[in-house]
Amino acid sequence: MFSDYSLAELGSIFIMQGFAGLILFSVFVLMALGLAIIFGQMGVINMAHGEFMILGAYVTYFTSQLFLHYIPSLFGIYFFIAMILAFFASGALGMAVEWLMIRRLYKRPLDTLLATWGLSLILQQVYRSVFGPREVGVELPNWMMGSLPVTEVVEVQINGLFVMGLTIAITIAVALLMYKSAWGKQVRAVVQNRVMAGAVGINTEKIDRYTFGLGCGIAGVAGSAFTMIGSTGPTSGQLYIVDTFLVVVFGGAQSLLGTIASAFTISQAQSTMEFFLSGSMAKVLTLLGVVIILMLRPQGLFVIKVRR
Amino acid sequence: MSKASGRTFFLRPQDIIGIVVLAFILVVVLPLTLDNFRLQFVGKYLTYAFVALGLVLCWGYAGILSLGQGVFFGLGGYCMAMFLKLEASSPANTKIQTTPGIPDFMDWNQITELPWFWEPFKSFGFTTVAVVLVPAFFALVLGYAMFKRRVGGVYFAIITQALAAIMTILIIGQQGYTGGINGITDLRTLHGWDIRTDSAKTILYFVCVALLIACILLAFYVKSSKLGRILVAMRDKEDRVRFSGYDVSSFKIFVFCLAASLSAIGGAMFTLQVGFMSPSFVGIVPSIEMVIYTAVGGRLSILGAIYGTLVVNWAKTSFSESFPELWLFGLGGLFIAVVLIFPNGIAGLWQTYIAPHLGPLFGGVAKRKATPPAPPSPGTAPAAAE
After folding, report:
1. Which residue, A161, B15, B79, B148, shows the most beta carbons closer than 10 Å to its own?
2. How many whole angstroms separate alpha carbon A138 and alpha carbon A58?
3. Where exactly are the transmembrane stretches of this chain (chain B) (predicted)?
4. Element (H, E) at A156
């Protein structure tokens, strides 16, 4: 399949597909970060994660409309405000869900799966009734449009670069929060030994609620970033949920570094193969590869050793 | 085989009553009260009941939640559909095609020769065996790879769900070999017997009921056997069973394969009754819906799962007819309610609220233990590989 292209062309193809893969990688990382916190740290299978993301996307869409109609002079920076709003909207919904539903189910992980699936169905229908079944897209501010030429044949889109930069910033922020702050220490303590953490005076219920809220909030930001590169519909979230779970499991459920590494592997494999095979076969082969590797190495790529 | 008192063969008296009542409803009451159109709906729901039955054994008793049962349902259904499609595409029927004698969708996709894996499905004997064995083999490979490495619980659920996604993408992508998103349609005859007529559909309904009752008996047999008890023991304390010298993974593989075969029988009956098979019965969404049938019926109750399937599907049909937008709220609410409010489903409600009052009416049954042993908190599946 390589013989039809010259060496230089092959190089450009790999760079272009690699860049497309990096955008996919950014979306995966943003979605998987929230899930890695909720699933990896708390052990809750949140099937509604995609819907929290879509909530963020809708919030972004409405903020953009608001700016467009009422304060067009500030349209260039609406995205940053939308992102903050998306974080708090999804996070608040997440905390409400935790309080109403999840906290009763911590000991029954498979049941959280069913309950959150039900929640995702309800949220999808809410979106459909409130925002309509059609997909919506935001208008990008001027500075985000266009592309940067790198060589004669290779160009990279500015909105893609922006999403990547955003991904890196959010990843660093999450890593600092989880591994350097006092709050992150409490979260990890609760995850590793709930009873003991409670015994030394950590309010485990409160930590649970905020952790879940944080995970959902990051999903909201992911949705916000998602609007930069694609349109949003009521069921867009469901398209990514299985991939995201595979990313988290493949990386080793409790390791943030593993999540990033596996998101990178999966997205690059998929986008490179997409050029040479049909899109559906690329996806099948990627997912199948991940499943087979998981069968051989069920604990994922990176494992944290915890004494139990 | 069982020393427990009061048992005839492997069924307890109340099980026999339950099966007889179910059979009476399905064979006598429903055909007499429903018109043909509605009865065909019930026949379709009953094919899902096979899947629910498999899930009771696999999830309720053994604690293995598979979110990929749609794959097995689909495999069974596709096996049957391939046979029927080949019969429908005889050279006489397809003489207007570029290549007569192959299914129409292959012709549309410029395929000129029947693919090798379609060849054996010209034989009905092979097809019936394949319906049961192909999914079982698939489950065997999957189960062997996963359970031998002690992957279970949540991880197993996610991986089976990914498989359901893969299977759907594959079927849709390989349009020339599988019929793509439309599936395999326009099925006509089974050995020259037209399956599209009303009378044929009624006969197929009764065949389906008979098969279902047979599968229910099989499920009861498995449940009451020593194997069934090991499954329950494994679900509740896997390590203790392992330390007692049992090979835990083999039992899990067996029950997973059994559930796969049951689902596949349902799939084959679905194809026969409805007259087509498509990827929309394979993917993530139908697979997880099948889990909810079992959960609503009661994940620990064989008969409950059948009623659960009927009730959920009946609700789905009647809601979708009148208030389509409400159905997703209803289904979503059902998922949440069945987890938070009545984890043992209809069967649990029956045992708690109705059965104790029925006891005095049927003296014989009442003497048995009034309260069945409290089912352990569901979903305490063994943790994944540690």
Report:
1. B79
2. 9
3. 16-34, 46-68, 124-147, 154-173, 203-222, 243-270, 290-314, 326-350
4. strand A155-157
CB contact under 8 A, A114 and B295: yes
The token pair at B351 is 């045992």
Residue A305 in domain: no
List of residues 6+ apart from A31 with CB closer than 8 A = A49, A50, A53, A219, A222, A240, A244, A247
ipTM, 2 decimals?
Answer: 0.82
Strand A155-157, strand B193-194: pairing: unpaired
In-domain check, residue A110: yes
The closest CB to that of B340, out of A101, A125, A278, belongs to A101
Contact A245 B155 (CB under 8 A): no
Which of A46, A285, A291, A304 best tests the B interface by mutation, with the highest count of B CBs <10 A?
Answer: A291
- Say how many domains are in chain A: 1
Q: Which residues of B touch A278 (CB under 8 A)?
A: 173
Given CB atoms, is A119 within the 8 Å cutoff of chain B?
Answer: yes
Do B119 and A254 contact (CB within 8 A), yes or no? no
Instruction: List the pLDDT tens digit at each of the 308 positions of chain A.
Output: 556 677 777 777 777 777 777 887 888 888 888 888 888 778 888 889 999 999 999 999 989 888 888 887 777 788 888 999 999 999 999 999 999 988 888 888 888 888 998 999 999 999 988 888 888 877 777 776 777 776 666 677 787 888 888 889 988 988 898 888 988 888 888 888 888 888 998 888 888 899 999 999 999 998 888 888 778 888 888 878 888 888 888 887 667 788 888 888 888 888 878 777 777 888 888 888 888 888 777 777 776 555 54
- Burial bucket for residue B110 (CB in 10 Å: 0-12, 13-18, 19+): exposed
For residue A204, give its domain range. Answer: 30-296
- Say if A165 falls within a structural domain: yes
The reply to whether A161 falls in a domain is yes
**Which of A104, A109, A118 has the CB atom closest to B153's CB atom?**
A109
Least CB-CB distance to B154: which of A109, A117, A284? Answer: A109
